[in-house]
Amino acid sequence: MTDIKEARTLTLEGALKVLNAAIGEATRIGQPMCIAVVDTGGNLLAFGRMDGSKGLSVTSSINKARTSALSGSPTGSAHADVEIQVTLAHENRWTNLIGGLPIRVDGFILGAVAAGSGSGTQDLAVARAGAAAIPGADMCVDFTPMGAEDTGIIRGATLQPRI
Protein backbone atom coordinates (compact mmCIF):
# COMPACT_ATOMS: atom_id res chain seq x y z
CA MET A 1 0.00 0.00 0.00
CA THR A 2 1.25 3.48 -0.81
CA ASP A 3 0.91 6.79 0.99
CA ILE A 4 0.39 8.82 -2.19
CA LYS A 5 -2.07 8.54 -5.04
CA GLU A 6 -2.22 10.23 -8.39
CA ALA A 7 -4.78 13.01 -8.70
CA ARG A 8 -5.87 15.47 -11.37
CA THR A 9 -7.97 18.61 -11.20
CA LEU A 10 -9.31 21.31 -13.48
CA THR A 11 -7.26 24.44 -13.95
CA LEU A 12 -8.79 27.89 -14.17
CA GLU A 13 -8.22 27.78 -17.93
CA GLY A 14 -10.10 24.48 -18.15
CA ALA A 15 -12.89 25.78 -15.95
CA LEU A 16 -13.33 28.83 -18.17
CA LYS A 17 -13.57 26.57 -21.25
CA VAL A 18 -16.28 24.57 -19.48
CA LEU A 19 -18.13 27.74 -18.43
CA ASN A 20 -18.03 29.25 -21.91
CA ALA A 21 -19.22 26.02 -23.58
CA ALA A 22 -22.11 25.80 -21.10
CA ILE A 23 -23.03 29.45 -21.72
CA GLY A 24 -23.01 28.73 -25.44
CA GLU A 25 -25.49 25.87 -25.02
CA ALA A 26 -27.75 27.89 -22.71
CA THR A 27 -27.76 30.67 -25.29
CA ARG A 28 -28.50 28.20 -28.10
CA ILE A 29 -31.55 26.78 -26.29
CA GLY A 30 -32.72 30.23 -25.21
CA GLN A 31 -32.63 29.53 -21.46
CA PRO A 32 -30.55 31.90 -19.30
CA MET A 33 -28.66 29.94 -16.65
CA CYS A 34 -26.49 30.18 -13.58
CA ILE A 35 -23.46 27.98 -14.26
CA ALA A 36 -20.86 26.86 -11.72
CA VAL A 37 -17.59 25.00 -12.27
CA VAL A 38 -15.71 23.52 -9.30
CA ASP A 39 -12.49 21.59 -8.72
CA THR A 40 -12.18 18.10 -7.21
CA GLY A 41 -12.73 19.48 -3.71
CA GLY A 42 -15.91 21.31 -4.67
CA ASN A 43 -14.20 24.71 -4.59
CA LEU A 44 -15.59 27.27 -7.02
CA LEU A 45 -13.31 27.92 -10.01
CA ALA A 46 -15.66 29.74 -12.39
CA PHE A 47 -19.20 31.04 -12.23
CA GLY A 48 -21.53 32.92 -14.55
CA ARG A 49 -25.02 34.25 -14.05
CA MET A 50 -26.59 34.98 -17.41
CA ASP A 51 -28.95 37.92 -17.74
CA GLY A 52 -32.48 36.67 -17.05
CA SER A 53 -31.48 33.66 -14.96
CA LYS A 54 -33.12 33.04 -11.59
CA GLY A 55 -31.43 34.57 -8.55
CA LEU A 56 -32.18 31.48 -6.45
CA SER A 57 -30.25 29.37 -8.95
CA VAL A 58 -26.97 30.97 -7.88
CA THR A 59 -26.84 28.88 -4.71
CA SER A 60 -28.41 25.75 -6.18
CA SER A 61 -26.03 25.64 -9.17
CA ILE A 62 -22.99 25.96 -6.89
CA ASN A 63 -24.40 23.23 -4.63
CA LYS A 64 -25.12 21.01 -7.63
CA ALA A 65 -21.52 21.35 -8.83
CA ARG A 66 -20.11 20.74 -5.34
CA THR A 67 -22.35 17.69 -4.81
CA SER A 68 -21.38 16.22 -8.16
CA ALA A 69 -17.64 16.73 -7.69
CA LEU A 70 -17.59 15.27 -4.20
CA SER A 71 -19.90 12.35 -4.95
CA GLY A 72 -18.53 11.60 -8.42
CA SER A 73 -22.10 11.27 -9.68
CA PRO A 74 -24.60 13.45 -11.50
CA THR A 75 -27.00 15.21 -9.18
CA GLY A 76 -30.41 13.61 -9.13
CA SER A 77 -28.90 10.14 -8.79
CA ALA A 78 -29.79 9.68 -5.11
CA HIS A 79 -33.07 7.93 -4.45
CA ALA A 80 -35.96 10.20 -3.46
CA ASP A 81 -36.36 8.32 -0.16
CA VAL A 82 -33.07 9.67 1.19
CA GLU A 83 -32.58 13.04 -0.48
CA ILE A 84 -33.96 15.17 2.37
CA GLN A 85 -31.98 13.31 5.02
CA VAL A 86 -28.73 13.56 3.04
CA THR A 87 -29.31 17.27 2.39
CA LEU A 88 -29.77 17.90 6.11
CA ALA A 89 -26.74 15.79 7.01
CA HIS A 90 -24.63 17.99 4.72
CA GLU A 91 -25.90 21.29 6.16
CA ASN A 92 -27.95 22.08 3.04
CA ARG A 93 -24.86 22.19 0.81
CA TRP A 94 -25.74 18.89 -0.92
CA THR A 95 -28.55 18.76 -3.45
CA ASN A 96 -30.31 16.15 -5.53
CA LEU A 97 -31.66 18.62 -8.09
CA ILE A 98 -30.75 17.65 -11.64
CA GLY A 99 -28.09 19.65 -13.43
CA GLY A 100 -24.76 18.80 -11.78
CA LEU A 101 -22.31 16.63 -13.70
CA PRO A 102 -18.88 15.38 -12.64
CA ILE A 103 -16.11 16.03 -15.12
CA ARG A 104 -14.40 12.65 -15.32
CA VAL A 105 -11.57 11.78 -17.70
CA ASP A 106 -9.79 8.41 -17.70
CA GLY A 107 -11.41 7.52 -14.38
CA PHE A 108 -10.26 10.71 -12.63
CA ILE A 109 -12.78 13.23 -11.32
CA LEU A 110 -11.35 16.62 -12.37
CA GLY A 111 -14.19 18.67 -10.91
CA ALA A 112 -17.78 19.29 -11.91
CA VAL A 113 -20.08 21.64 -13.77
CA ALA A 114 -23.67 22.50 -12.96
CA ALA A 115 -26.40 24.67 -14.37
CA GLY A 116 -29.64 25.97 -12.92
CA SER A 117 -32.64 28.11 -13.95
CA GLY A 118 -34.22 25.82 -16.50
CA SER A 119 -35.95 22.47 -16.25
CA GLY A 120 -33.86 19.55 -15.01
CA THR A 121 -33.48 18.37 -18.60
CA GLN A 122 -32.24 21.80 -19.72
CA ASP A 123 -29.90 22.12 -16.76
CA LEU A 124 -28.35 18.72 -17.49
CA ALA A 125 -27.98 19.49 -21.21
CA VAL A 126 -26.14 22.72 -20.41
CA ALA A 127 -23.88 20.94 -17.90
CA ARG A 128 -23.12 18.23 -20.47
CA ALA A 129 -22.20 20.85 -23.06
CA GLY A 130 -19.83 22.38 -20.53
CA ALA A 131 -18.21 19.07 -19.62
CA ALA A 132 -17.76 18.27 -23.32
CA ALA A 133 -15.28 21.17 -23.54
CA ILE A 134 -12.78 18.90 -21.76
CA PRO A 135 -11.49 16.26 -24.21
CA GLY A 136 -12.46 12.73 -23.23
CA ALA A 137 -14.95 13.77 -20.53
CA ASP A 138 -17.54 11.14 -19.57
CA MET A 139 -21.02 12.45 -20.42
CA CYS A 140 -22.72 10.03 -17.98
CA VAL A 141 -25.08 8.86 -20.72
CA ASP A 142 -26.32 5.97 -18.57
CA PHE A 143 -27.51 8.36 -15.82
CA THR A 144 -31.08 7.75 -14.62
CA PRO A 145 -32.56 10.41 -12.29
CA MET A 146 -34.08 8.97 -9.13
CA GLY A 147 -34.94 12.04 -7.04
CA ALA A 148 -38.39 13.31 -6.13
CA GLU A 149 -38.04 15.99 -8.82
CA ASP A 150 -37.89 13.26 -11.45
CA THR A 151 -40.05 10.44 -10.16
CA GLY A 152 -43.15 12.47 -9.42
CA ILE A 153 -43.14 11.33 -5.79
CA ILE A 154 -45.49 13.31 -3.58
CA ARG A 155 -44.25 13.04 -0.02
CA GLY A 156 -46.80 11.88 2.50
CA ALA A 157 -49.23 10.68 -0.16
CA THR A 158 -50.74 7.23 0.13
CA LEU A 159 -50.84 5.45 -3.19
CA GLN A 160 -54.11 3.76 -4.03
CA PRO A 161 -53.79 0.26 -5.47
CA ARG A 162 -54.86 -0.16 -9.07
CA ILE A 163 -57.89 -2.36 -9.56
Give the key terms.
163 residues; alpha+beta; Beta-Lactamase; four-stranded antiparallel sheet; 5 helices; globular; disordered C terminus
In short:
Pfam families: HbpS-like. This is Heme-binding protein. Helix content is 34%, strand content 17%.
Outline the structure in words:
The chain has 163 residues and is an alpha+beta fold. It has a single domain (12-147), classed as Haem-degrading domain (Beta-Lactamase, 2-Layer Sandwich), CATH 3.30.450.150. It is built from five helices and four strands; from the N terminus they run H-E-E-H-H-E-E-H-H. It has helices at 12-29, 57-71, 83-89, 120-131, 148-151, and strands at residues 34-39, 44-49, 100-105, 108-116. The protein has a four-stranded antiparallel β-sheet with strand order 2-1-4-3. Strand 3 and strand 4 form a beta hairpin. Helix 1 crosses helix 4. It is globular, with a radius of gyration of 16 Å. Residues 153-163 have low confidence and may be disordered.
